[in-house]
Structure to design on (274 residues):
């Protein structure tokens, strides 16, 4: 039976509910302000955090003004080891920032449980410098114990407006089993999805309190959904390109070559632009 994992997840969610109401509220205020000004909410994460980016995009019951930042070189489907290397490469942050324009008045939500990898930190820092509100969903405990890979020693909590703690322990996994030194059952995806949608629900509540009807998709299985959703797509299609096609203008990041041989598939792709 998986009762121990069920209990661990329930305890994790209970801890979040107990401690994060205020941080969720502050994040929701940023999102509500952006929606009220007809700005975008960008979502970004690397590795498994990409799952949370897709979870918030084009989702029934979620905001239509969400723009996902999905970079092939940072996804596990492009090669797990290559993606792990890329999220530590500051050149990739340079190029993510160039491709995905985040402007003043927008909001960026960054998912990074460890909060110590270069690319999420750099993208968050630049978005904040550009005048965007920046929210991180990350683990304070993890950040306190894991060494930063940023050249300046920064952690994600250093460069954001609001940190919402997902309360995941170092290593992510929740359940210790006899006979195995390594815990199992990661909790960060569950916690991250819970927190993202909690923020969005609270943002919608705040917008309604202001007399603003928020742009929310409805399930395509419901009557009238196609017309409702088509109107929202028409409103945002010019600003959210993934509503229609992936990565207009080319899909692969390109960076200056290095002297040494490529160390991985991502290094080769970044060098060759292919």
């Amino acid at each position: 039976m998986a009762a121990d994992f069920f209990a661990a997840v329930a305890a994790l969610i209970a801890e979040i509910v107990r401690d994060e109401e205020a941080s969720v509220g502050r994040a929701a205020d940023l999102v509500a302000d952006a929606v009220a000004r007809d700005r975008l909410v960008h979502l970004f994460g690397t590795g498994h955090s990409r799952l949370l980016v897709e979870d918030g995009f084009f989702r029934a019951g979620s905001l239509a003004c969400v723009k996902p930042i999905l970079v092939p070189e940072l996804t596990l489907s492009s090669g797990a080891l290559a993606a792990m290397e890329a999220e530590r490469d500051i050149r990739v942050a340079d190029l993510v920032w160039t491709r995905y324009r985040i402007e003043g008045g927008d909001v960026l939500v960054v998912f990074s449980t460890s909060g110590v990898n270069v690319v999420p930190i750099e993208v968050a820092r630049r978005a904040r410098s550009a005048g965007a509100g920046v929210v991180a969903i990350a683990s304070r405990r993890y950040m306190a114990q894991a060494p930063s890979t940023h050249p300046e020693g920064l952690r994600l909590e250093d460069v954001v407006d609001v940190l919402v703690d997902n309360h995941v322990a170092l290593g992510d996994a929740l359940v210790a089993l006899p006979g195995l030194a390594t815990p199992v059952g990661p909790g960060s995806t569950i916690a991250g999805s819970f927190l993202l949608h909690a923020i969005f629900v609270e943002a919608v509540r705040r917008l309604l309190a202001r007399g603003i009807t928020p742009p929310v998709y409805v399930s395509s299985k419901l009557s009238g959904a196609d017309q409702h959703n088509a109107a929202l797509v028409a409103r945002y299609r010019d600003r959210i390109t993934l509503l229609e096609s992936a990565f207009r203008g080319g899909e692969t990041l390109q960076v200056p070559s290095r002297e040494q041989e490529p160390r991985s598939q991502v290094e080769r792709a970044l060098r060759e632009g292919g």
Q: What stands out?
A: The first helix runs from residue 3 to 19.
